[in-house]
């Protein structure tokens, strides 16, 4: 069957495009959009996918990753859908891609100017855990009333002695909007700030698009006596590649029962291992 | 094969780059005949962004009918329009003072002003700072600084404000979103 180029019809793309330009003009603000039906279920990356489909053109080189892996089912399915309807080239190398769609990771290799990173977002509203009503959270954003977001972190400190949010750690964008950065690990939060590339975030089920333009101030929420900290991998080494200082997965060797660590961003690991004189 | 679908996609990507990097310049046209008084880049931008969900205003009847015929967009008053397409010589203070700026709860319900100026790359020297700009971007443009002063008034209370798409006769385009701080040197 013949499909539209990039699956969506032109009216849908135009609407997504207009909303995306607004999102870039208002960093961190969630622009409502008319999320379209797609051949995958809402909540499985449809927000990111709609952004990608509205952006992609024949000259693009596409990379799709799911939690650091180019080869997981979700990444492969999304990549196939995009390629079947556009015929674009794909790559696993972050620096070779013009358009990167990612679930829950910002790649280890820094973005370059004019590169676009699309993040899939399940829950775009950082105030949702403290306020169930959309109408009220919208008003709280309008009033820059973020006590709820701070109080939530404060309560974690009171209860557990430290902030327990690991992924989706809230950030303040350009001093104005508190934003959910999608469930990227805290390790990736500092990469949001002063990035060379454009970061777009899409939530298909919740019908929101938002953006972090290049060179924008992005601060993770923290207190003076409880500063923001990323996950520490200082004393662990990747078993496959010998890499250190990258985001690691903790795994268990099923034969020996031993705990070991492996680099989460697999394409970065392969690139490093293929370099001459690599650690392993 | 290249069709309108691909051409508007390419034009949109230029707009994406320009919105995320205020003050940078790109040239962009679509290969279609232009029966409006505006440059090809203005028409390309209109065809890329307008459809029947959009309202716009422009001064001359002929241009209005052409945009409506090509895109299905609705004509509206300046104070109601999602987009205003105008030449700098036809800009009025009233137009800038009454155009939509959105609300604090819904700042995206603001108008985008597409202004055709004489030249981009020469003229008054502007300095831009803000998100999307590493340090300072220098932008030469013939746009009269008095319009920029009116724009600053409308953009004083972020997040509400207006976004400018500036196009010249040679089809160069640049964008000044509401987040950008503009200084005339």
Automatic annotation (TrEMBL), chain A:
List this protein's GO terms for biological process: organic phosphonate catabolic process
Keywords of the record, alphabetical order, are: Lyase
- Give an example GO molecular function: 4 iron, 4 sulfur cluster binding
Return the InterPro entries for the record: PhnJ (IPR010306)
State the protein's name.
Alpha-D-ribose 1-methylphosphonate 5-phosphate C-P-lyase PhnJ
From TrEMBL, chain B:
Q: Which GO terms describe its molecular function?
A: lyase activity
GO biological process: what's one of them? organic phosphonate metabolic process
Cross-referenced InterPro entries: PhnH-like_sp, Phosphonate_metab_PhnH
Write out the entry's keywords from A to Z.
Lyase
Q: Which Pfam family would be a valid example here?
A: PhnH
- Write the protein's name: Phosphonate C-P lyase system protein PhnH
Q: What is the lineage of its organism?
A: Bacteria, Bacillati, Bacillota, Bacilli, Bacillales
